[in-house]
Structures
1.
Amino acid sequence: MTKYEKKIYDIVNASYEHMTAEQIYVELQKIYPAVSRATIYNNLNKLCDLGLIRRVSLEDSPDRYDRIKKHDHIVCQKCGRISDISFEDLTQTLEKQFGENFLYYDLKVFYLCPDCRKLQSNNLS
Ligand SMILES: [Zn+2]
Ligand SMILES: [Zn+2]
């Protein structure tokens, strides 16, 4: 791993924030002020290809980057905040159904986060 790869890998793995490339760029700049955006994108793609980190894609929002440890996501429909959650592991069920054709699954549950819920009930009252 290059020093950039290693550092980006560390940043993503230490974070539970589901950072965007832009946020990772800001973080990395604190350590390597000369780093370019292109370097960030190239290294993020490489780390994803190697299966060392994973990409979380959302409609109408930049990609986020995350640890690969198996977990699922709940996403606020309103503000787009992503939180980690662990549901029952469906791998066995899916393997039974699809056999060798099963690759992986990526589950997202959409909800209204506590902040948005509060905002909504404030507006109603
Ligand atoms: Zn929200
Ligand atoms: Zn996550």
2.
Amino acid sequence: MPSRNSLLAAVLVVFLLIFTAGMPPSDRPAFVPLASVAETLDLEAEFNATTGIVRLTGADTVLLFEIGSREAYLPDGTVVIMKEETTLQDGVLLLPAEGVDLVIRRTAKRPLRWGYEGSRFFTYTGSRPVEAAPRPDGPALRHPGGYEVRTVIIDAGHGGKDPGGIGYNDIYEKEIVLKVALELERELERSMKGVEILMTRKDDRFLSLEERARIANGTDPSKNPIYVSIHANVSFSASTKGYESYYLSLEPVDEEAREVASMENSVLGFEIEDYNDYLQEIINRIVDIEYRRESMRLAGMIQEGIESSVGKKSPNRGVKNAFFYVLKAVKMPSVLVEIGFVTNGEEALRLCEPEYERTVAQGVAEGIVEFAELFKKTEGFTR
Ligand SMILES: [Zn+2]
């Protein structure tokens, strides 16, 4: 005699069969290739492989997802935490179902249901798919410029009427940093063959921060340029010494959205004449967030490079972040290196020795080479 439980199970199976047979072929998978969502919904998808940030741009909005993160950023500054992470699998970007809902809600003119079947993403209203475009998965979104760093901009700080820090024995920062920058140029030309090395200045001349940024931003972005600004430090304490690398600080990660939000609020105060300008502004903010992560990595590698090069001669003061105008203005991964303190007698004198200048430059070059190699090997830090 069948037990009560097995009878119940049989009934359940029958019910399931009846129900699933009547359902439209629109099962919601946990993940959908982002490229097919973008294509079906007519959104522009951009993927920065280095930072793992994916931007979906519609007619009047921008959405941001991040590989390995459950967060989705909306242009009003809201951060939506999804149950699953946006992921990259075998070169295909996968958006969690919840992310798909969000994208539809923010970009479609009317409520749409969606399905994914046979490698096809489609939307529909009512109970049946209206239109299931017969197309296979789109190719995975790729970094448009490939994965090779092909331009390095070296910026020697200060110059001309701007001496920078004046230290022990009237040693000028602008002179030391120019010599190290020139050594760095030589070093990179040797170790990064075929890579364009650009100097903001090669002699003792004044350059505004805007001019430095203009030189850097004038390079071809598809060559994955990076920007390294060489400076020397000053301190009220004569005993302070060591080297440190800075990347641009906006705010910690959870504050980034607030940054976008505060920008939007500032726009609300006046008439928006050109909505595209406004949209571009949002995109620019997001790009800043992307480059900041790359800059952080580059700063870490430069610190390691200098440490392996100078050894115990000078202490490693680590990676720091602060607001530097020039880092903010440069639209690429950018790091400002403080190679040592001109206010420390011992360090100031050493920084004037050509041998030590070469050693520091070699260390910085090592960090840059390491960054470029890893960027290529990991296809923009995604592997
Ligand atoms: Zn300086």
